[in-house]
Design a protein that fits this description.
Elements: H1 8-18, H2 22-60, H3 70-77, H4 86-98, H5 121-128, H6 133-163, H7 174-185, H8 188-196, H9 200-215, H10 219-232, H11 238-245, H12 249-270, H13 272-276, H14 278-285, H15 298-305, H16 324-342, H17 344-352, H18 365-377, H19 391-400, H20 409-420, H21 441-454
Helix pairs in contact: 2-7, 3-8, 6-7, 6-9, 6-19, 9-10, 9-19, 10-12, 11-12, 15-16, 16-18, 18-21, 20-21
Length: 475
């Protein structure tokens, strides 16, 4: 069976809407206006509750203070950040330049370098050009600040692209545009990544570009983005595997060429031995990770549940004692999530009982989004700021599916709140058995988002009417 192009799901939408009666078209035309007002109201209330409501609850219910995001936003506004990623990355470059014959990954720094050497090539180029450490850090700060702004702009661009549909007057309204921009800026993992000085913010940028290219039907630049993400975090190589299995050959070819160029440059700069040494780092990362509450993974959840390792404090070299069953459950969960995402077309067909168009969802944005979610959560180490790549998935899912009246907006809203907000009052349960699993709220939010993607049906059946916007219940 021939697999349709990237445009097939959108084309199916257009054909379906084209066959609707004038009464149904009126419903579709009116729905976005009401939905946009609700979206703006939801975003404003969410920002208010997340940044003020939780503080009041902590004060009056728990009679204590609470961690909050206000300082992170002020960091952005005042152009200041920590150097969480930059210190080990720049330190590794300086170590290599001072000791070119010694293994880079054996250097004792503030924190161990956990990225492939391809990721530090830009820093090596700056240092060899005579740029000092302070200037390198300022450059990275400005670049990451611009990356945040660009991610916000790309979120609006994705919304505008997806909202531009037949029989929906005006495309993206000003309310929807403002709501999307505000939701993007206050999306906690995005701002947190900048404040920490994390390379993750560039992964957020690459994935936002990937989503925009995909909805535009531009496979080659999308494949380049997949490769760039893989150069920083190898688990995103699953996106290239996904492209191969979905027969998106243009994306796969562009990604492999980009990856080959980056790999060759890294070998030329650092040597074969240093690059192969990263395999040892990966093997170590698969068996150990911090149990700190910010590690929103199955590994972190299980270790916190049995009180193995630190929870609230954080020290870069402190890892919980190895527990075999935790390790194997984490591996099993990883395998299950990857297989779940790879089996997306078949699961989606079952959920939606679509037989005639069973293959049309393969390679769709929902399919790609499911794999994107899995790339984040199916690892032993999934820090809060790692969840920033999920922002464009929320944007697409709202404007492509839920804004049109398909699916339960309450489930999508709950997933957004769990991932976008810093629910710090839940850390009060850290010392309470069983209850402390609530600290893994972002992980549960990502699982809910994955379930929504697996069950999404952006292309309604022929003759099926979109649900009236007043109900918007799950089908």
């Amino acid at each position: 069976m021939r697999i349709p192009s990237l445009h097939s799901a959108a084309d199916c939408d257009n054909r379906t809407l084209g066959g609707l009666s004038s009464v149904t078209r009126s419903v579709v035309e009116a729905a976005p206006g009401r939905s946009d007002r609700r979206l703006l109201l939801f975003v404003l209330l969410n920002i208010l509750v997340a940044n003020a409501g939780f503080k009041l609850v902590a004060h009056f219910v728990f009679h204590t203070g609470v961690d909050e995001m206000r300082g992170r936003y002020m960091d952005f506004l005042h152009f200041r950040q920590f150097t969480d990623s930059w210190t080990p990355m720049l330190g590794s470059v300086n170590y290599f330049l001072a000791h070119p014959g010694l293994p880079i990954y054996r250097a004792r720094l503030y924190d161990t370098l956990i990225y492939p050497l391809m990721s530090i090539l830009p820093l090596l180029a700056m240092k060899r050009a005579g740029v000092g450490d302070a200037a390198v850090l300022r450059t990275l700060m400005v670049a990451s600040w611009l990356a945040v702004c660009t991610v916000v702009g790309l979120a609006v661009a994705i919304a505008a692209k997806v909202a531009r549909r037949p029989f929906e007057r005006g495309g993206l309204s000003w309310r929807a545009g403002v709501a999307t921009a505000m939701a993007a800026f206050f999306f906690m993992p995005i701002t947190l990544a900048f404040s920490l000085g994390q390379a993750q913010i560039f992964l957020d940028l690459f994935f936002a570009l990937l989503v925009l290219f995909w909805v535009q039907g531009r496979q080659r630049p999308a494949g380049v983005m997949m490769a760039l993400m893989t150069m920083v975090k190898p688990q995103f190589g699953l996106l290239l595997l996904w492209a191969a299995l979905r027969r998106r050959w243009n994306a796969l070819a562009a990604g492999l060429v980009t990856l080959a160029i980056g790999g060759a440059a890294s070998v030329a700069a650092f040597g074969v031995s240093n690059n192969l040494d990263y395999l040892r780092v990966l093997a170590g990362l698969s068996r150990k990770a911090q149990s700190h509450y910010a590690n929103q993974s199955m590994f972190g959840l299980l270790n916190r549940a049995i009180f193995n390792g630190e929870n609230m404090p954080y020290h870069p070299y402190v890892y919980p004692p190895f527990v075999p069953w935790v390790y194997y459950v984490t591996l099993a969960t990883t395998a299950a999530l990857v297989l779940l995402a790879l089996a997306y077309p078949f699961i989606n067909r079952r959920i939606n009982a679509i037989n005639k168009r069973a293959r049309e969802q393969a390679g769709s944005m929902a399919d790609l989004g499911a794999m994107g979610v899995v790339c984040v959560i199916a690892t032993p180490m999934a820090w809060e700021h790692h969840y920033g790549v999920l922002l464009p998935i929320f944007v697409w899912l709202w404007f492509a599916v839920y804004r049109r009246g398909f699916g339960s907006i309450w489930k999508l809203g709950l997933a957004f709140v769990l991932i976008a907000d810093f629910l710090s009052p839940l850390n009060f349960f850290a010392a309470i058995p069983v209850a402390n699993v609530l600290q893994s709220y972002m992980y549960f939010g990502a699982l809910l988002l994955l379930a929504l993607l697996l069950g999404s049906n952006q292309a309604p059946l022929d003759g099926e009417r979109p649900s009236p916007p007043a109900t918007m219940t799950a089908r």
